[in-house]
Amino acid sequence: MDLSRGGAPLDGPTREDPLAREWSEVVGGPLGTRARRHRWWTPVRVLLVLVTLTFAMGMLQKNSCAQQSWLNGETRYTHMCYSDLPYLYSGRGFAERAWPYSDDATTRERYPQVMEYPVGISYWAYGTAVIAQAIGGEYDAAARAQIPSDQLFGDHAVERESTLFIVVNAVGFALLVLLTTWLLAGVDRRRPWDATWFAVSPVLALTALINWDLLAVALVAAALWTWARDRPLATGLLIGLGTATKLYPLFLLGGILVICVRQRRWGDLGAASAATAAGWVALNLPALLTGPTEWKVFWTFNQERGPDLGSIWLVMQQVAGRGISADAVNLGSELFFAVWCLLVAFVGWRARRTPSLAQLGFLIVAGFLLVNKVYSPQYVLWLLPLAVLARPRWRDQLIWQATEIVYFCSVWWFLDGDLAPAAGGDPGFYWLAIWVRMAGELYLIAMVVRDIRRGTPDVVTPPPRLRRPAPVAASG
Fold first, then answer.
1. pLDDT tens-digit profile of 239-283?
2. Whose CA is closest to 210, among 376, 434, 405, 95?
3. By the 8 A CB rule, do 294 and 103 touch?
4. Where are the domains positioned within the chain?
5. How far is CA 363 from the centre of its chain?
6. Sign of the CA dihedral 309, 361, 401, 444?
């Protein structure tokens, strides 16, 4: 393997990670001091091959549902191959090329439920639907309009298009995971192997095709990459685009705030903040102009949503045997998150060294997910690129991702009714799985906080800019 690049030695996992060193015995042992670089197999290329295999295994895992065109409601849970994509294709009007933010009365009468995701996801879904229909070549708007919208999912032509829609999205997702891997491997050029547990992540394989979260994941990885190269304007723009695709990338600004205050980089903070606002507005503008009422649905839907799958609020509600209002959940989660952000800022400010953006971003996003009113299985992807850079230790990644897999399995069993006790009663195993998932997140949080407090060398945040000395005028 390549031990140097431009004269700087590359760190290898078998040199510094005990578990990696132990596992490497299967393929010949740790990297030696006399190892020489390979002409073609650079670390990044190895990682790209690994993530390709991981994504392919994820596609294979969804094969049971794909073979039945996602029509079998039992298989999607027993085989854990559920995806939102085919249901939203017909349920949100994409099968008729309905613009997600159309305020046309006929469209809204036919599809009263507006796309409940941020605009970046809606644009992507609409674009891939048009591509799938163009590839299929059987789209007939007039004939399709004669079919009741609630019967489109079972229509034969729509069924074939839905399969193409998933394939087109899967191809796009594959490109996104390749791009994300390349970006994560390049955040610190001396440590490309830190991206290993993204490339081989079992949770990536299991959840990549559930929804469109990989769009935001790629934008977050790009923001980490540009920040490591001291490009605050580009970083802010990417955060803005990410926020317009999924809300959580906005939390990276909190990490940037801590870093810039510590290093007195006021110009960088202003540039990143302004670019974030500009990127968010630019991506939201088409939706706002074409359907402001429909644009608001994402915000109202999340504000009015009560305790839902995977959340601690759902556990409390089911344990208590009575409902918890959406207002109570909003207030409780917002207060907790505000206090959490203050604690993260305190930890970052008191650190011996300036923490990395990945470390601070991971802590903030993890705190948000601990008390969010819903934890869909694919939300683990929000943490994945941040976690692998914040704590690139094989043991800790294994522990954390194992707890996420426990939750992934349990949520489908819960939805299928398999976790209900035979004699009736509460789904205690599902509650336990939620606690296990939260324990895994808290464990990784503790490890990252320990690194920050110990002053682990900062490898993914650029140093503060050095001011050039003023020129000295030549004497007489």
1. 999 999 999 999 999 999 999 999 999 999 999 999 999 999 999
2. 376
3. yes
4. 61-454
5. 14
6. negative
In 3D, which of 55, 44, 39, 38 has the Cα closest to residue 182?
Answer: 44
Give the contacts of 231 (CB within 8 A, at least 6 positions apart): none
Q: Of how many residues is the chain composed?
A: 476
Alpha-carbon distances, residue 363 vs 57, 191, 254, 345, 467 (angstroms) = 30, 21, 10, 10, 31
Q: How far apart are CA 390 and CA 458, in angstroms?
A: 10
Q: Which long-range contacts (CB under 8 A, 24 or more apart) does 121-126 make?
A: 121/211, 121/212, 121/215, 121/245, 121/246, 122/287, 123/283, 123/286, 124/172, 124/212, 124/215, 125/88, 125/89, 125/92, 125/94, 125/100, 125/169, 125/212, 126/94, 126/97, 126/99, 126/100
Query: Who contacts 271 (Cβ-Cβ below 8 Å, separation ≥6)?
Result: 232, 233, 236
Residue 9 is inside which H or E element, if any?
strand 8-9
Alpha-carbon torsion, ordered 187, 190, 196, 197, to 10 deg: -60
Nearest to 330 by CA among 361, 308, 345: 308
Q: Determine phi and psi for 30, rounding to 5 degrees.
A: -60, 160
180-226 per-position pLDDT tens digit? 999 999 999 888 999 999 999 999 999 999 999 999 999 999 999 99
Tell me what pLDDT residue 13 has: 72
Cα(258)–Cα(349) distance, rounded to whole angstroms?
7
Cα–Cα distances in angstroms (integers) from residue 219 to residues 58, 96, 134, 323, 391, in the given order: 21, 29, 28, 37, 20
Partners of 4 in the beta sheet? Answer: 9
Q: Provide the Cα torsion 380, 463, 451, 9; round to 10°.
A: 90
147-190 pLDDT, tens digit per residue, is 888 888 878 888 888 999 999 999 999 999 999 999 999 999 88
- Inter-axis angle of helices 156-186 and 119-136, nearest 10: 130
Give dist(CA 196, CA 320) in Å, integer. 42
Which residues, 6+ apart, have CB-to-CB distance to 212 below 8 Å? 117, 121, 124, 125, 169, 245
